[in-house]
Each structure stands twice: as C-alpha cells, then as structure tokens.
Amino acid sequence: MAVFTSVSEQEFSAWLGNYSLGTLLELQGISSGIENTNYFATTSNGRFVLTLFEKLKADELPFFLNLMAHLARHGIPCPSPVANRHDQFLGELNGKPACIVSRLTGKSLTHPTVANCAAVGAMLAQMHVAGLGFDEPMANPRGAAWRGSAATQVSSFLTAQDAALLHSEVAFHEQHTLAELPQGVVHADLFRDNALFDGERVGGLIDFYFACNDSLLYDVAITVNDWCVGEGGQLNVARTRALLDAYNVVRPFTEREASLWSVALRVAALRFWISRLFDLHKPRGGELVNAHNPDQFKHILQRHIAANGDVIRLRP
Question: What is the mean pLDDT of residues 257-267?
Fold first, then answer.
C-alpha cells in the first residue's frame, strides 16, 4: 500500500476544522501511487482527496497547486485545490505538507480504445492551450541534468549491454534536444492511471506533481508511449494516429515538431526507463512498494531506436 504517512480519522477531523467542508464521514487510503500519500475523504459537503507530500517540500508546492487552480478555472477537468479559512491551498498534517482537492468522476482504463486515445489527445491539447496563460515557471526536474546524474547512479546495477545503451542514449539527447520547439506547461506523467474516464468522456486529469515547463511535444510523446504502445513495445498504429490527429485539431503541430517526433519519443521513453531503474534499485528508505518494471520502457526505447526515425508521422 502506498500510504507512507498514516492519518487517523481523529487527526484528519481536527485538521479539517481549518476548512469549510463539513464533517468527516469516511477516510480511505488509496493504494496506487509511488510519490505521495493519498486518501479519499468524504465529508458532509462532498468527496475530496487528501494528499500528504512525501518528497516535495512546502516551498516547492505552490506551482503545482496554483497550476491546478488555473487549469480548473479554464475548463480543464483536473483536481481543484480547496483553500482553508486563511485562503491558503497548502497546510501541514502529521509533519508533512498537505492539501485537499476536489475528487473527480470516472475511473482509469487498463486497455484504452482508439476512441479513448482520441479523447486523451484532444484533452492534452486543451490542457496545453490553457496552460499558455499560466505564468509561473518550473524547470523540468527530470531534464537533462537529472538524466545524466540518475543514469550514473543506477548503471552499476545493470548488465554491461544495458549500461552501454543507457549512457549512449543519454549522450544522444545531450546533442539532440527539443529546446527550440514550442514550450509550455506539461503534465509530464499522463499515463493511463492519471486520466479518469466517465463513459467515453475524459472526466479528469490527475496527479500533476511532475508538471513543469518543457517542450509540448515531449508531453505528447510521454502520453503516446503509454496509451498507444502494444505488445512488445511497438506503437499501435490506430491508437497513435487517433491520439495525434485529435491533438492536432486543437493545437496544430509545427513542421519542426514533426521533424523531431522520433527524438521526442526516445527521450520520453528514456526518462521513464531511468526513473523506474532508480525506483527499483535506490528506493527511499526501503518504503517504495509499487516500483514498476523498468524493462517495459527499455523495450519501448529500443523499438524507437530501431525504427531509426521511421515512426508514425505527425501531420502539421
């Protein structure tokens, strides 16, 4: 279970007194997730999600909370932070920074359809457009410097062949960047478990705590690498085409983005291969119980490298 910090009903009820959300009816730990402690909280005023931040510090959190508030105001279905009686989104509970946000409708999908991928592509583009009006900067904490450092720390756990692949790919992206492409706020973790479907409609985008400023195309690649990958790590043509075309209707791709699409797919796969290696081999305090298999993204990366740029094309 991914509840790292326990919160009793009595502790939460006392903390809830700082808010105008009624009285607690039920508090239930959420087992998914590897970064934060999360609880479903039902009060007499509605349904919410309580988050205690296990890695991020209080001074790092305003960006994420303000971003979610901004996106929610602009029609993006994402968790909306609730302000306390002092008009603050952030508080402290059991020694950890904590916030409470609205709980969205819908559920995540394990096996997305072509229509699901189109809906996610359109919603991602809408989020990118809405984010252009958000003026608080946040550099990507999982960017080039992190990739180089983390790769060095995990390489001793790998076979010689995998270590060589890892370091050669890190070096490749030091020379081939996406810095000249359109930039903006990116979700940076829009996997299937971070989108909720209410029927055929996207009911919510959740878990914005890797959001940052980066290439918008990088965010598209992260999303495609999860939603559109079939058996063996190759892209499913129909799902990929649906996601890209739906995105393109809302925010058209540029010619330069189209030319760097294969690079974006590779760096997106590399980022998650490295982070999963790190979570597996260097977990914090032995607490991490939901570490994912790094080989999934190694295989996706190898597929993209083998394609040598011959990928499902963007249509600018």
Answer: 97
Q: Could you tell me the pLDDT band of residue 285, with boundaries at 50, 70 and 90?
A: low
Which of 41-55, 67-81, 204-218, 288-302 shows the lowest per-residue confidence on average (mean pLDDT)? 288-302
Determine the Cα–Cα distance for residues 35 and 46; give it in Å rounded to an integer.
Answer: 25
Q: What is the CATH number of domain 9-102?
A: 3.30.200.20
Pairing label, strands 36-43, 46-53:
antiparallel
For the chain, give every domain's residue range: 9-102, 114-307
Kindly report the CA angle at 209 between 204 and 212, in degrees rounded to 5?
100
Collapsed DSSP state (helix, strand, coil) of residue 298: helix
Burial of 163 (0-12, 13-18, 19+ CB in 10 A): middle
pTM for the model stands at 0.94
Q: Residues 114, 136: contact at Cβ < 8 Å?
A: no
Range list of H helices, 32-113: 62-73
Say which CATH superfamily domain 114-307 falls into.
Aminoglycoside phosphotransferase (APH), C-terminal lobe (3.90.1200.10)
**CA nearest 222: which of 197, 186, 276, 182?**
186
Structure tokens at 93: 């509970």
Residue 252: strand, helix, or coil: coil
- Name the CA dihedral angle for 194, 199, 201, 205, rounded to a multiple of 10 degrees: -20
Element (H, E) at 170: helix 160-175
Q: How far is CA 162 from CA 21, 59, 291, 299, in A?
A: 51, 37, 19, 11
- Per residue in 98-141, pLDDT (tens digit) is 999 999 999 999 999 999 999 999 999 999 999 999 999 999 99
- Is the separation of the CB atoms in 179 and 80 below 8 Å? no
